[in-house]
């Protein structure tokens, strides 16, 4: 497996909907950085890996569901950078393993299953102590890489991905799907004055994430970690495009994703980016954006998770 990470290209979307709205539409293709460790997952892992290495940890332990992109990426990153990895999986073991967990095992990850009641305690000192007693000195990365190291990495998504520093000013709206809010927090800390971050929660009733975002921003700015600016750019949540909740998919979303891929050559993952792209296109039809706006949509990867969903909708997806 290659250690090379490719600079993510920025691809213009020549959409009739965007043209009619008078808006320029671009996609930041973080999904093309690396075959296995890509998207926002790499940025959220980067400084966790560095801290673990600096503190001489040899084992990473993290959490996720059975189809978790974070589990997938952590297993691959651990294998790439010489760490043993342990994945604490929500729920009971189901055999045969799905493609996500099968890949994680192939990368050397040890899987441990927790019932849902115990899993809900994953961020508590008591459960962390239990895991350390069971597995020894492990470097614990929270679910989704949602900690200050994760925020730090995500401050680099926009600036470091641009071909020139000035190019980062070219977009006045940065759009991203939102799960734990870590990516949104990092992006908000890295934008220039006049730019705005728009997050599309993929969870039902996602307005609660506003408190999570404020907490991440406050804690990060109070830390000694580097921040591009001393205050975050403006941001907002658009909570109407969750399609029923986390990992929920219906025929409409699946067909939209397939058609978008065929028309523009950009594959979308159904859990995150498809919902955000659908939301942006719908808002363009509604006149939500102003003529002359330039939008950058962040493709956060996660395409590996499509395999399980596609099996349930084979009548629409060409596999």
How is the secondary structure organized here?
Layout: E1 10-12, H1 16-21, E2 24-29, H2 39-54, E3 59-64, H3 69-81, E4 84-90, H4 99-106, E5 110-114, H5 116-119, H6 125-135, E6 139-141, H7 148-154, H8 156-161, E7 173-178, H9 182-188, E8 196-201, H10 209-222, E9 234-237, H11 251-264, H12 273-286, E10 294-299, H13 306-312
Parallel strand pairs: 2-10, 3-4, 3-6, 4-5, 7-8, 7-10, 8-9
Antiparallel strand pairs: 1-2
Query: Count of helices?
Result: 13
Helix content: 25-40%
Main sheet: strands, sense, barrel: 6 strands, mixed
Instruction: Note the overall shape.
Output: globular
Strand order of the largest sheet: 1-2-10-7-8-9
Q: Beta-sheet strand percentage?
A: 15-25%
Label the structural class: alpha/beta
The residue-averaged pLDDT reads: 92
Provide the gyration radius in Å.
19 Å
What assembly state would you assign to the polypeptide chains in this entry? single chain
How far is it from the N-terminal to the C-terminal residue, by CA? 25 Å
Low-confidence runs (pLDDT<50, min 5 residues)?
none
Number of strands: 10
Please, could you describe this protein's structure?
The chain is an alpha/beta fold and 319 residues long. The chain is 40% helix and 16% strand. The chain has 13 helices and ten strands. The strands form two sheets. It has a six-stranded mixed β-sheet, with helices on both faces. The chain has a four-stranded parallel β-sheet with strand order 5-4-3-6. Helix 3 links the parallel strand 3 (59-64) and strand 4. Helix 2 crosses helix 3 (69-81) and helix 9 packs across helix 10 (209-222). The longest helix has 16 residues, at 39-54. The model has no long low-confidence stretch (mean pLDDT 92).
């Amino acid at each position: 497996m290659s250690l090379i990470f490719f600079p993510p290209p920025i691809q213009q979307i020549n959409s009739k909907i965007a043209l009619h709205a008078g808006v320029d539409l671009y996609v930041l293709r973080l999904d093309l950085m690396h075959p296995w460790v890509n998207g926002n997952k790499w940025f959220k892992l980067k400084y966790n890996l560095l801290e673990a290495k600096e503190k001489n940890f040899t084992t990473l332990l993290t959490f996720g569901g059975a189809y978790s992109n974070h589990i997938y990426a952590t297993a691959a990153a651990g294998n790439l950078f010489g760490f043993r990895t342990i994945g604490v999986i929500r729920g009971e073991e189901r055999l045969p393993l799905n493609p996500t967990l099968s890949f994680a095992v192939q990368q050397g990850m040890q899987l441990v299953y927790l019932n849902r009641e115990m899993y809900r305690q994953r961020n508590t000192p008591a459960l962390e102590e239990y895991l350390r007693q069971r597995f020894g000195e492990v470097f614990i990365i929270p679910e989704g890489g949602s900690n200050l190291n994760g925020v730090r990495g995500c401050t680099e998504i926009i600036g470091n991905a641009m071909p020139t520093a000035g190019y980062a000013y070219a977009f006045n709206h940065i759009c991203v799907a939102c799960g734990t809010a870590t990516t949104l927090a990092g992006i908000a800390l890295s934008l220039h004055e006049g730019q705005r971050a728009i997050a599309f929660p993929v969870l039902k009733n996602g307005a609660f994430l506003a408190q999570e975002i404020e907490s991440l921003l406050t804690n990060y700015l109070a830390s000694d970690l580097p921040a591009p600016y001393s205050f975050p750019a403006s941001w907002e949540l658009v909570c109407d495009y969750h399609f029923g909740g986390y990992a929920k998919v219906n025929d409409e979303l699946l067909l939209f994703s397939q058609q978008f891929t065929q028309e523009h050559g950009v594959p979308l993952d159904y859990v995150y980016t498809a919902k955000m792209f659908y939301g942006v296109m719908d808002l363009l039809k509604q006149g939500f954006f102003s003529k002359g706006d330039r939008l950058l949509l962040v493709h956060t990867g996660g395409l590996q998770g499509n395999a399980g969903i596609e099996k349930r909708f084979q009548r629409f997806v060409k596999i």
